[in-house]
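Annotated sample (chain length 308).
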Amino acid sequence: MTTTKNIAVLYGGTSAEREVSLNSGKAIANGLVQSGYHVELIDTKSVPLSVLADKNIDCVFIALHGRGGEDGCLQGALEYMGLNYTGSGVLGSALCMDKVRTKQVLLAQGLPTAPFKVIQQAQFDMADCEAVLAELGGVAMVKPAKEGSSIGMAKVTNAKALENALVEAFGFDDRVLVEAWIHGPEYTVSILGDTPLPAIHMETPREFYDYEAKYQSNSTLYHCPSGLPEQDEQALQILAKQAFDAVDAQGWGRVDVMRNEQGDWQVLEVNTVPGMTETSLVPKAAQAAGIGFSELVSRIAESAGLNK
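Output written by the structure step:
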């Protein structure tokens, strides 16, 4: 492929997911160079966004995970500057970064998601932990509302554990999602354009698919094909696309889903800028669909501007 397009890959940043973003940005840049693009890597931690105004940039490839890159702030700034960018727009990015808002939209659209409680730091009495846990079935997952990569998350099985997990989660966010524990396997479906890619089934010996299982462990298994019967695979892909559309996600992304003991799907969240190293989940799914890494990042880059 020969092209004269100039692409700025924004990566790094200052969020809790900085290290993951550094790896994603480098991999994306390498893939774009292999496809013939002119690429400039820009670490937004040390380089102000204003430098883009002085560059001949055709589009911006967003490889920033978490706050400041995935939450709509950057997308709004780029739109103000008149620059095309990859992925979801302002609304979809902001919604998906907020796990609470995402679940509220899913419920409003009639899509399946586990029962949950929203805990506000300033309003919550830790003496109520036992009642909250009982309401959610005795076992729950604690999640900061606006963090990714499982940062600040914990499984809890008693009131004291919930109290400790809330204290930890409040270090990342003053609003925390406490979600009923789902007993069952976890899957993810990547979306490229309007097309769901083959599902991936993740298995880990750890309590859940946490940061270590995602980025540090050698014991995590990824099954693609997922091992689901064809009818179930199709149903999962349809649900993932419905969830993706419900929160106004666009361009590309990933929808995380679990299956409970009754065999029902439960949508966890939608990721608008998921990890993008060559061994990340979206590239694994793309490979299963016959799409190599360079082609994948090229297709995402070519879709830039469709989010306006």
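Annotation: The chain has a mean pLDDT of 91.
Annotation: The chain has ten helices and 13 strands.
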